[in-house]
DNA sequence: TTTAACACTGAACTTTTATTCAGTATTATA
DNA sequence: TATAATACTGAATAAAAGTTCAGTGTTAAA
């Protein structure tokens, strides 16, 4: 019962790796099963043996990416004492992570496609809710530690997510150092703004 | 020679309007000619009579969108005396006019997926550069009028664009008032930040 | 060794897609 | 009125896409 499980894991990973690269490069819709077949060397039927369908394959990649991000962040979070430090740390983490896994381009396309089965929509909504919850918690901690003076936590969770979302797009055209700098600057602005203090 | 020209203009506009809405909502690849046929009520052949092909239709929309944005903003800009006012005005304008920024989503997809002519790519790059130039000019004015104290104008132009870009994505799931509020809040943050002043 | 579960193939099937074109109706021109 | 140009139809075409499934070889269980 070992060699089979091992084989399954191996090909599932092979398919996932190829699909991730292709979705990243070409986008969701423009990546065909045939593309994945060519990239992996295995048959179309085999892909459907391991994944329910194209949508399921993509959602699998998103969720995998998500849990991976959570894991690495959890290991990093301890290093930052204050919430402000955490925000800069998160920005850096995102900047670096998204250079390696820029799946967001395809997921934007995927998300904005209206006609989806309810279970697919459910999984998508859970993903977005996860991001905002994460931000809310972070901001709440900053309030608790008296670092921020904000009332509208939910609103600012969206602002923060928007900032990171948009910045990711631009970072695709940047070098590593340039992207890091941009993310740091974004956090500067998020925390301190650009207007002159004396008003 | 009048009734025909008028008719052509009318149906061309009808097709463009429907296509714009669909591309915005569903993205480039996911919008089919059949979708546009259903939305307009005219035939597929008619679309190809007025536009060279799907790509040509999309490029037409991009160009039209660009000139339209410049025109409307130029008319509005006078109303806002300070640069800070201009920024809030721009945010409101973006929040309300949902035909502007949402198209960037489709154009990103279009730009990234298209393995097509380099002159098309060049035109898309010019568009992005145009936004950042616009932001840079706005920020420069704010510095000239002593409203801001920023050094890294180019960096902040990207931050501002990122904020608007990301916020637009969230605003698709919002009601009108909710979206307006979010854009206002975004500008608050951009200008004043969220950290406590006394530090 | 026999049986059953599993991993996989690849061609066939069904939809969907962009695009074309022969033909029709309407309008302008001579 | 006759002719040419224009605006449009809608069915046909052909390529590409996602998905399925009967069948094949391999591994685990009895």
Automatic annotation (TrEMBL), chains A, B:
Residues 9-69 form the HTH tetR-type domain. GO terms for biological process: negative regulation of DNA-templated transcription. It comes from the Bacteria. Keywords: DNA-binding, Transcription, Transcription regulation. Residues 32-51 bind DNA. Gene3D superfamilies: Homeodomain-like (1.10.10.60), Tetracycline Repressor, domain 2 (1.10.357.10). The keyword Phosphoprotein does not apply. The keyword Zinc does not apply. InterPro entries: Homeodomain-like_sf, HTH_TetR, Tet_transcr_reg_TetR-rel_C_sf, Tscrpt_reg_QacR_C. GO terms for molecular function: DNA binding; DNA-binding transcription factor activity. It holds the Pfam family TetR_C_5. This is Transcriptional regulator, TetR family. The lineage of its organism: Bacteria, Bacillati, Bacillota, Bacilli, Bacillales.
